[in-house]
Amino acid sequence: MSFSNQTLLPFSVTFFTARLANRDSMLLTDEISALRAATRRTMLRYPFTIDAIAVLPSAIHTIWHLPPGDSNFALRWRMLKTHFSKAIPDTLSRTPAQSRARAKGIWQTSIWEHPIKCARDFDTHVQMIHTSPVIAGLCKTPQDWAYSSVHRQSVIRPFVPETPRISRPAPNPIIARTFHHEGFAPHP
C-alpha cells in the first residue's frame, strides 16, 4: 500500500478512495458485515472518526479524522484491509508472489488520498462521497444507497482552520501618483 509523504499536523482530516483489485467485484457490498467488523476492530485499536463514507461494490470513498498529532492513516488502512481480507472466504486465485506475501490480491496496492485543507474542501468532498453511488449508476438519489453516511442526521464538519490567503497590500495612492508623475511604473 503506498501513501504520499504525510506531514504531521495538529489535525488530520483526509479524503480517501480505496479500491478492490477487481473493479467488477461486488465484494465490499456483499461482505458489508465483514467490512464493518474490520473497521470497528481498526477503530478500537487506532482511533479515528469517519466523517463521511460511501461503500460501493468495489470502492470505498471516505473522509477520516484522526486524533490531534496523529497522521498515520497508512497503519489504519493496512489493518482494516488485513482484517477484512482475513474475514472473507479465500476464493480468489493468487499469484506465487501473493501467496508468499500471504496476500489475497483483493485490494489495489495504492489508496488515493487528498488532505482536506478547509471547510469548503471538506463540504465538496462530502458531496462527492454522497453522490458517488449515483454517479456510478447504482441508484437515482444519494438517499437510495444503503451503504452511505448520507443517512446520518447530519454530517458534522470537524474544525479545519481556513488556509490564510496571502495578498499584497494595496499600493499607497500617493506613492503610485508620484511614480506615474515622474515616469516610473508602479510595481505590480
Automatic annotation (TrEMBL):
<dbReference type="InterPro" id="IPR002686">
    <property type="entry name" value="Transposase_17"/>
</dbReference>
<protein>
    <submittedName>
        <fullName>Transposase</fullName>
    </submittedName>
</protein>
<dbReference type="GO" id="GO:0004803">
    <property type="term" value="F:transposase activity"/>
</dbReference>
<feature type="domain" description="Transposase IS200-like">
    <location>
        <begin position="9"/>
        <end position="132"/>
    </location>
</feature>
<dbReference type="InterPro" id="IPR036515">
    <property type="entry name" value="Transposase_17_sf"/>
</dbReference>
<dbReference type="GO" id="GO:0043565">
    <property type="term" value="F:sequence-specific DNA binding"/>
</dbReference>
<dbReference type="InterPro" id="IPR052715">
    <property type="entry name" value="RAYT_transposase"/>
</dbReference>
<dbReference type="GO" id="GO:0006313">
    <property type="term" value="P:DNA transposition"/>
</dbReference>
